[in-house]
Amino acid sequence: MPVNLTGYWKMISNDNFEEYLKALDVNVAIRKIATLLKPDKDIVHEGDHIVIKTLSTFKNYNMDFCVGQEFEEDLSGVDDRKCMTTITWDGDKLVCVQKGEIEGRGWTHWVEGDELHLELRAAGVVCKQVFKKT
User: Fold this and answer.
1) Which residues contact 32 (CB under 8 A, 6 or more apart)?
2) Nearest CA among 116, 49, 52, 115 for reference residue 78
3) How far from chain centre, in Å, is Cα 65?
């Protein structure tokens, strides 16, 4: 059984985020604001249904999905694109593949102790974020 991700998580590190945003072709003004933020994650995980809320003082982004079911994701809160998204478990890691304009786009979430790890990928660029459970 995969790990349950439910909880409120506060960001403690954010490595290579600006390069990741460049790979998504996010404009320079938004990149500068976004790199100053330390968003929180509020996750509700019930069976195959997961809601991940990314909360910040600038923009919030909500992702509501069922594991294993492809859906159209509207990324207007991120980079103003749409993509076809599928999220699956790979052992205890939640793996997202986002098919669209950006090659190799997706992310992976996993838990180590009281830390939630997030690896963001786009066009060969990798950003690593870590959150601590509160």
Assistant:
1) none
2) 52
3) 13
